[in-house]
Amino acid sequence: MPKVLAKDSCKGIPYLSGGVGIGEREELREMRKNYNLKLIFAREDGDYLADVNVVIGNEKGEKLLDVNSPGPWFYTKLPPGKYNVTATVEGSTVQKEIQVGSNGMTDVVLYWKK
Questions:
Q1: Quick one: 6-112 is in which CATH superfamily?
Q2: Are strands 63-69 and 52-58 parallel, antiparallel or unpaired?
Q3: What is d(CA 99, CA 80) in angstroms, rounded to the nearest whole number?
Q4: What is the spatial distance between Cα 59 and Cα 53, in angstroms, rounded to a whole number?
Q5: What does R_g of the chain's alpha carbons equal in angstroms?
Q6: Residues near 88 by beta carbon (within 8 Å), at least 6 away in sequence
Q7: Mean pLDDT over residues 76-80, rounded?
Q8: Mean of the pLDDT values across residues 12-20?
């Protein structure tokens, strides 16, 4: 079973993290319909990263989520709009502005240098 961090916490925004093994990734694929944003954490060489601190803020600078993702795949459901994602692992931080639409899934891969 994927590692469910929490639902309806951090201002009512559901999120889910997992993907450590192939079985977890398959289960997460089946659950993706409940979310509209998927973040993947990896090194530039393709190795997945886990234990990532994830902060998502809106255009106004309000922090909506500040959680730890134990797995390399992170799903959440956000209202349509622009967001700033900040992810930190092993003392290294990556930031990315993203746009979440009103339909479908937004997939974002965050890469760290080796």
A1: Carboxypeptidase-like, regulatory domain (2.60.40.1120)
A2: antiparallel
A3: 8
A4: 20
A5: 13
A6: 52, 53, 94
A7: 94
A8: 82
